[in-house]
Amino acid sequence: MKRNALVFFAVAAALPLASLLGASAQAVNGLVTTGSPVGSTPQNHQNEPAVALDANAPNILVAGSNDFVDEQACPPAIAVNKGTCLDRATGVGVSGDYFSFDSGHTWTQPAYTGWTTAPCDPATPCKGEVGPIHTLPWYFENQLVSFGDPAVAVGPIPGTDGSFSWGNGERVYYANLTSAFSTTVEFSFPNPVFNGFLGVGVSRLDNPTPDSILDKNSWKSPVIVSSTQGQTSFQDKEQIWADNAASSPFFGHTYICSNDFRSNGSHKNGNAPVPMMAFNSADGGSTWDKVQVTSAQTNINGKTPNDFGYSGCTIRTDSHGVVYLFAWREGSPAFGLPTHSAQVMFKSFDGGAHWTKSQVIANVTDPCYFIDPVYGRCVMDGYGGARTDLAASPSVSIANGAPTGAGATDEIVDAYADAPVLNGEVTQFTYSTNAGGTWSTPDAVSLPGDRPLYAAPAIAPDGSRAYVIYEADTVPWAADDFTSPRPYHGVFASSALDSSGAPTGWSTEYNEAPADLRATYPGHDLYQERVGDYVYAAASDTYGVGVWASAANAAVCPAVQAYRAASFAAGTHALPAPSPLTDCPPNFGNVDIMAATTG
After folding, report:
1. Is-contact 345 325, C-beta < 8 A?
2. Which residue of 77, 113, 131, 268 sits 20 to 30 Å from the alpha carbon of 416, by its own alpha carbon?
3. How far is CA 532 from CA 50, 237, 536, 548, in A?
4. Taking 70 as the threshold, does the pLDDT of residue 549 lie above it?
5. Rounded to whole angstroms, how far apart are CA atoms 550 and 589?
6. pLDDT tens readout for residues 190-219
7. Contact 168, 159 (CB under 8 A)
8. CA torsion through residues 556, 562, 567, 573, sign
9. DSSP label at 499?
10. Cα–Cα distance, 447 to 465 (Å, whole number)
11. Is 14 a residue whose pLDDT tops 50?
């Protein structure tokens, strides 16, 4: 989820690209979303994956995504009349959870019970029923809805005396956006369960095993982290981290960053107050304290190119317990497109209670050269295309020596999409070996011809190797061409790091064969393509893993492409749309979450 754009830019001339260079694959890939059907859209659609590694048992991974598996198959009446496959006022959760116990080779998506519309006949209006679900449990029972934007972490369990130890076992944390349960409106106001239209909830599961993750009772009931927010707040793009280095004085403490869109209930405009929030827990996620890190002021007109607001946060800790919060300080569209933004860093030395002022760590050109005039988002491949809302955001990993902290280099690595010129977008990698005081000159990681949408790094806890996952278009900007293929794929790369922390040479560990972005959509809008707003990576001292949204098993729907072209020509998607269940191939929209692992 992310902002809507405010201006429209004319089409610029496309620049020539070098052809895509292949590389031998060293990693293996695995399907994460194993509970998803191949057909029956939107149940077959997932996006925005997250992954975390258990530092104390590195073969164990947990992942999350926006997963529509529990939704009703696309109702023809809604599709034709509203151009969507989702009735968002059903209370069905979308936060899918997945586990791997073999370093990412195979994955399990558990089934629980909860609120679902999946069994409903698509021809019949349906508000839902209790039945099998493949998303987080205990939300419906607590009058809540798991609303997606997954963020996952693994840390130690606190003992009866409140102290943390790996000897107590491991705790999985799953943060996600959360709303109040309703089958009549998407967001209740006033919210009868907690303050705000949309908050941050955290689910927890201790000591995951192949058997325990199948038991609904292994999960604790969700905790609303943002319960003291205002009634008109709309949280977005949260991220969670557990301090997993035993050398830290705050070992076991858990941290969340999020953006608090205030005063309007959703981020329909960029001029709403949007402070960066940080939450911290010292008791294993049972209770949380809140700190407002930045001012709520947002300059819609932009007195300078770099003061439009903050978003796209990442939060991590080093071996000494210093908390690092990174965010994207957006450039103002008032200065034209593409916007020129800054990545900034804040630090806390007392477990998240107080934060330093911002420090700029990188200047970025947002890959937003064009804004779709129909739905008002920055698009990467062409009109009606995939949005790039958080492409320029920092994604960070720290070599903190987990699980013990011994041997930590505390090197910080950052990866992101940068767009110095149209059709010359690159995945950049930069690092710091002095606690973020200075940063290396960005190093381009992406293959020639790739135009990255999103990227994420991971560094081995001992600082020996870095990994980068990114997803990218492979052809130039297509403007209003709705008939030509729009190739897209995921790429996983790695490099050993020398004694100074510098990469010694990037190698392609996994290079997915390009699929077609036109086969994707976000579930709630047939007009636009969608693979989400981010990717994730994680690493141990011996292997790395990356997750992304793959369209490899999705088919283009000619009827949808005709609808997209007609909508673009008319300047609105309020036109009669096709019914995917009858007018499209069964696997239209079948976006899977895939993992590439060197484990």
Report:
1. yes
2. 268
3. 11, 12, 12, 9
4. yes
5. 11
6. 889 999 889 999 999 999 999 999 999 999
7. yes
8. negative
9. T
10. 19
11. no
Six-digit token pair at 140? 């419906």
Smallest CA-to-CA distance from 210 within 120, 303, 98 is with 98
DSSP assignment of 352-373 equals TSS-PPPEEEEEEE-S-S-B-T
Compute the Cα dihedral for 52, 55, 57, 58 and give only its sign. Answer: positive
Instruction: Check: CB of residue 549 under 8 Å from CB of residue 453.
Output: no
Of the candidates 556, 447, 456, 466, which has an alpha carbon nearest to the alpha carbon of residue 512? Answer: 447
Contacts of 242 (CB under 8 A, 6+ apart): 153, 154, 155, 156, 171, 173, 252, 253, 254, 255
Cα gap 74→44, rounded to integer Å: 11
Identify the band that residue 536 occupies on the pLDDT scale cut at 50, 70 and 90. very high
In this structure, what token pair is assigned to residue 131? 């039945």
Q: State phi, psi for 94 to the nearest 5 degrees.
A: -130, 15
| CA separation for the pair 26, 492 (Å, rounded) | 10
Give the separation between CA 143 and CA 284, rounded to whole angstroms. Answer: 23
Type and span of the H or E element at 145: strand 144-146
Give tens-digit pLDDT for 56-75.
999 999 999 999 999 999 99
Q: Who's near 216: CB < 8 A, 6+ residues apart?
A: 112, 113, 137, 138
Lowest mean pLDDT among 296-300, 477-481, 557-561: 296-300
Q: What integer is the mean pLDDT of 396-404?
A: 98
Over residues 555-566, the mean pLDDT reads 98
> Which DSSP string corresponds to 13-49?
PPPP-PPPPP----SEEEES-TT--SSSTTTT-EEEE
Residue found by looking up tokens 């519309």 in the block = 117
* Start-to-end Cα distance in the chain: 31
Cα torsion 325, 330, 331, 334 to 10°: value is -150
Within 13 Å, how many C-alpha atoms sit on residue 281's CB side?
26
Domain 28-573 has CATH 2.60.120.200: no
